[in-house]
């Protein structure tokens, strides 16, 4: 792997996560800490990334870094001829997105005895199993989508095992693995896949909401 390829992987990971420390970058790029430090140093000197200190420290992209990444992603689509496949995957993802987000709401809120929405404290295992059961067909469809997408661009291959891990934890009644932030929950992986599709196609969430 060339240095430029390693740097593009890092820029891409930061585009998807917004802010990431070395451990998070390592898990998403398959680079070790020494490689990450070396490439981040070059990217920082180029004005593409910036370091943040403190309890929630890490690295993030600059505007220049986003532009550099976008050039690399356009070149990737041109080189691989994968544009139509990514477009198809994105369209299929959007069909699943609204039902999935409705399930996330159902996981976090439920109807109380007075008919009002209350926080789901996960004390009703039958209710949680019903919500997970509604996720199952979406899980099957996202696996199929990722199979086709990975055939076109192999860098999407990392998403399916992450979804499977979150699904297995939910099947084991670990309630954190549906929507909890800051872990690799089902929602976390879903969000990152959405961002990845948008970034690859050069789109933004605002343009998506406008229907353009």
Question: How would you portray this structure in words?
Answer:
The protein has 212 residues and is mainly alpha-helical. It has two domains: 3-77, Winged helix-like DNA-binding domain superfamily/Winged helix DNA-binding domain (Arc Repressor Mutant, subunit A, Orthogonal Bundle), CATH 1.10.10; 82-209. It is built from nine helices and four strands. The strands form two sheets. A two-stranded antiparallel sheet has the order 1-2. Strands 3-4 form a two-stranded antiparallel ribbon. Helix 1 packs across helix 3 (33-45), helix 5 packs antiparallel against helix 8 and helix 6 packs antiparallel against helix 7 (159-171). The longest helix has 28 residues, at 125-152. It is globular. The mean pLDDT is 93.
What is the structure about, briefly put?
By secondary structure, the chain is mainly α.
Structural class by sheet pairing and helices = mainly alpha
How many β strands by DSSP? 4
Major β-sheet profile: 2 strands, antiparallel
- Give the low-confidence spans: none
How far is it from the N-terminal to the C-terminal residue, by CA? 36 Å
Compute the number of structural domains.
Answer: 2
* Rg: 19 Å
Mean pLDDT: 93
What general outline do the C-alpha atoms trace? globular
